[in-house]
Automatic annotation (TrEMBL):
GO annotation, biological process: protein deubiquitination; proteolysis
Lineage, broadest ranks: Eukaryota, Metazoa, Ecdysozoa, Arthropoda, Hexapoda
The keyword Protease belongs to this UniProt entry's keyword annotation: yes
Organism domain of life: Eukaryota
GO MF terms held by the record: deubiquitinase activity
Name of the protein: PPPDE domain-containing protein
Domain (PPPDE) ranges: 32-176
């Protein structure tokens, strides 16, 4: 229900300004840029780019943080954040490609964090799917909520490839689905759970 309500709002409270047809008010209210950061999946694209094909990872930058989604085998969120455009936090197979300003939003930073939290319930790590629930699907949903815009269609070529090559997901190395920073987060979460378990608390 929460996500459905957010999608109906689109770009947040600023969307109500469209009804007033007031460009000046819209500009005043919708100040924060929503930026899509796109990365080459380098180990794959170095072979396919010459023929016009590519597989890309993306994240959404807003309020100084970049949010993205990755797969893992556990029933909790696969959403993580990194410093914007820091491909070292993703892993050596990622190469930063470009940034695209897709729009602006009037959601506050606190609003955005709540939206990310709610999206994380839908984008669990164990629900990752290379065709219909990948990092670019997450970016698309988040951008739609924040500013009512679509991400460029070429970004989600990972899904396009999987329709032609059904076994592609099994061919991708595990670290492509679980970037380094997400792997670290999972390790910390599991360690925290182990430390708080009854057996550990009694020792």
């Amino acid at each position: 229900m929460f996500l459905a309500n957010l999608r109906s709002l689109g770009c947040g409270r600023g969307c109500m300004v469209y009804a007033c047809d007031s460009e000046e008010l819209l500009t005043t209210m919708s100040q924060e840029p929503v930026i899509l950061n796109v990365y080459d999946m380098y180990w794959f694209n170095q072979y396919t780019t010459p023929v016009g094909l590519g597989v890309f990872h993306s994240g959404v930058e807003i309020y100084g943080q970049e949010y993205a989604y990755g797969g893992h085998p556990y029933p909790f969120t696969g959403v993580f954040n990194i410093n914007p455009r820091d491909c070292n936090e993703l892993g050596e197979q990622f190469r930063f490609k470009e940034s695209v300003v897709v729009g602006h939003t009037d959601f506050t930073e606190a609003d955005v964090k709540r939206i990310i939290y709610e999206l994380g319930k839908e984008y669990r790590g164990d629900r990752y799917h290379v065709m219909n629930k990948n990092c670019n699907n997450f970016s698309s949903d988040l951008v739609q909520i924040l500013c009512g815009q679509d991400i460029p269609s070429w970004v989600n070529r990972l899904a396009y490839f999987s329709t032609w090559v059904p076994f592609l997901q099994r061919c991708l190395p595990g670290e492509w689905l679980t970037p380094c920073v997400l792997q670290n987060s999972i390790s910390q979460q599991r360690q925290s759970s182990n430390n708080s378990s009854p057996s550990n608390s009694l020792s």
